[in-house]
Amino acid sequence: MTASRPGPSSAGGAPHRPKPTQSPALPRGAWRENGAHGTNGINGMTGVAASPVQISFRVRAGGFQGFGGMPQLALTAAKPWMPLGGPSPMPMMEPVEMVVPQTKAEWIEVDDSSELVQHGFPSVGAALMHHSTMQDLFSSASYILYELAGEAMSSMTLTHDWEWNEYPYIAEALRRAGAVEYPYALATITLAPNKRKWAVGLATNGKHRQQTVKLSLALALAADADSLQEVIRNHPGFRELCEASGIFTGDARGPPADAVLLGPPRNFGRKRRRKWDDAPPPRMLPAPPPRPEGVEAPRSCGYKTELCRGDACPFAHGEEELRAPGEVKQEHVEAFKPAQISNGHAAADPGPGDECFWIELEPSEALPKELEGLPMEALVCSTNNYKRSTCSVDNILSGILGDEVKELRFIDDSEWKNLPTVGAALKKRMAKEECFTAAFCPTRSLWAVGVGMKGQTRWRAARLAICVAVALQQEEILEEPPDLSDYPNVLQMVKQAGEEKKKMLN
To answer: Nearest 5 degrees, angle CA 353-CA 356-CA 358?
Structure first.
């Protein structure tokens, strides 16, 4: 007789164990999260007590993978400070609000008869007023200007005008632009003999005025720059200031005209361009503050002696502004020199004054082959002469020599080794030894010398010297001087060179 296993209803059988509670059915692909503190459980089934670590897991209904048909589990250890099921998502960062500059450059224009235009500067320049909300950008003005000008920054000159009476034509242009009559500074820079820039900066404080005029000069250079991407990347806020001042901030260095397009053009960014095209126009900048009441137009405001209200005065006053009414106190800054060029320092005085002078070689000394068949005397010009000339020497040489300009030859002798006889003749007329460059014109049997400590400026001085020598020779031979009416400084140098030559020969 086979013994039967007692069922649940038998009296002597094992106690009745209820069936586990069935969870409601889930749709395929749904996830259920469950967890327990101190126990491991699945669908309410208790097990052996575990360490007090909160464990969360997810069971995907209907998803059986691998052997045995086990449900797909994803177990992650939850931190006590995290909500069950994983960390909460990070809040999204707010978009960076576009900075609208509180000031912008005004482009002022002076007459063609003004001193700036006569010395080769353009008639249009930038004028910028200082604003305290953009002090970080103003403090970086020197770095911005150096990135745009490079080594030519050493040729920058700066002059302050507190009463608006040093340069009346600039003061008139500022009044036409509606500028508040704060003290201003004028800055000039020479990038090349035919490329010069100037700008104006207005501020009540001397240090702020220097920063403002440098940033204004940087804007003037940015208007002609091929690319501003590096400057904009290094100095936040400069792009907005340029755009507010009407300067194109894109990259003007496009592909050449004969470039070959590889493949059909692709319309990348069409939606983005449409989005920007539909954007509303930028808001207008606020108008400059009005002139304080009771202040006359020709007078400057913001002075310690006129409008200062003691400790409550909003203006930051420098030492140069602590003066009596009507008193002019000059700053210790470099005077305005429109003719200063590139990156050379002022050379030593080569001879009497800053005028050209003549040298004569010793007949007893052996002449180098470069001087054979040429006269024994030569005209000498220094870098100071070239700075004072402020003219285009190439135009004069082309007008006098024509195609003979191609025959000009130059020999640079910085150590007096190539042309020792020329160095010995220079030593008789100069207080100290200077490097020189000799220029030769074989078609006219002329030669001249340019002296200076910088190679580039010395070479330009040599071109000026040969230019004056050729003009003087044409005047002596043809008894008809060349037309130099457009270059009065060179015409004066030709006249002085002729007088010095007569004194030397007599």
So the answer is: 115
pLDDT single digits (tens) 296-346: 544 434 334 444 444 555 545 454 444 444 444 444 444 444 444 344 433
**Sequence spans of domains, the chain:** 100-249+299-343, 357-505
Question: Which two structure tokens, joined as six digits, stand for 40?
Answer: 């491991």
What are 170-188's pLDDT values in tens digits? 999 999 988 888 999 999 9
The secondary structure of the chain in percent helix, strand, coil, rounded to multiples of 5, reads: 30, 20, 50
- In angstroms, the CA 4 to CA 155 distance is 115
What is the pLDDT confidence band of residue 217, given thresholds at 50, 70 and 90? Answer: very high
HEC string of 458-471 equals HHHHHHHHHHHHHH
Residues 6+ positions from 105 with CB-CB distance below 8 Å? 126, 127, 128, 216, 219, 241, 245
Separation of alpha carbons 435 and 412, rounded Å: 8
Positive or negative, the Cα torsion across 212, 215, 143, 122? negative
Rounded to a whole number of angstroms, the distance between the first and last alpha carbons of the chain is: 160
Mean pLDDT is lowest, of 64-73, 83-92, 220-229, 376-385, for 64-73
Integer Cα distance of 238 and 59 in angstroms: 56
How many whole angstroms separate alpha carbon 137 and alpha carbon 133? 9
Choose among 407, 402, 415, 401: nearest CA to 470.
Answer: 401
Nearest CA-CA partner of 453 in 433, 438, 467? 433
- Cα–Cα distance measured from residue 219 to residue 213, given in angstroms and rounded to the nearest whole number: 10
Predicted pLDDT of residue 17 = 53
Tell me the whole-structure pTM to 2 decimals: 0.37
298 HSE (CA, 13 A, CB side): 5
Please give the Cα distance from 448 to 468 (Å, whole number). Answer: 9
- 3-state DSSP call for residue 453? coil
Contact 340, 484 (CB under 8 A): no
